[in-house]
Amino acid sequence: MCSASSPSPTPRASSKQRDRWRRCVTATDAALGESLGRFFVARHFAGESRDVVRQMIVAISEAFGERLGELDWMDEKTKERAREKRQQVAYLIGYPSSWRVYDFSLDKKVYAANVLAGRAFEVKRQLTKVGKPVDREEWQMSPPTVNAYYDPLLNQMAFPAGILQPPFFSARSGLAVNMGATGETIGHELIHGFDDEGSQYDAKGNLASWWEPETRRRFEARTQCVVDQYSAYEPLPGVKINGKLTLGENIADIGGLKLAFRAYRALRKGAEERLVADGFDEDQQFFLSFSQSQCTKWREERARTLLQTDTHSLQKFRVNGSVTNMPEFARAFSCAEGKALNPKQRCDVW
Ligand SMILES: [Zn+2]
Description:
three-stranded mixed beta sheet, 11 helices, 5 strands, binds zinc ion
């Protein structure tokens, strides 16, 4: 994703030009995103979708609050500030509460004229913000975008309707399935707001460090385990994952999956019976959904570049690296102790 804090597609490297219709849709989305988005939302994100996502977010935020109480590397003062920040995170779900009005007309014949009109509109819109209060409801992505972000300057998290689609989310899917995919993303983004990145910005988004130095030292000491774990992965012969480059994202992946699992279990607490689908129980569905949401195919050249430049690990290792640190995964699939995905020692940060 384009924000450093997100889980998926990085710009593609293609061997041929993308189809014309795709390029047209991309250009329209860039110039008239919220106008195009209204149609997308009406067709693909109607009904109870927003409420279902909101319920998931509340449960994950609560799971994070519980987890804060358990962390032995974080001191009490820092925890208090973290709790305050947690309460103030703004969540944008699906689409804006009021749609942007594009006050320029389109030329049906001259493409370039429309591009220029769109750019002029955007520059004017940006300049109009100068001197006015910050709008924490403003979206930085259009509704159809398959992406999500956490913005530390606004303490704001956004999930466009585009990523709230199968295989990431569906209002008709079971809770375990939604939590394994979208829930993990929510947890991942939330952790960024409180980790070594997020600790530099307070609850209002001001550049003000709020971690006590001792907490920072303990955090760094703990993260060496994650560096070592991922540095041992070798996706291509002779090319290993750079455990330091990908550290922040790996920590967020592991922590995000744990939060989502805890939240899913909390919401299912007291449920009469466990649901089984296609022979898989709910815990198994949770982990399968997580792994399917990361399913990606790269050409080798691209994978090689990503391994050296991307702050995220390659998807297969985002999955294996995360589940390796969860005993719940090993129990769900009866992995024998000492196997690759059920090691004797695990990393535990968030
Ligand atoms: Zn991230």
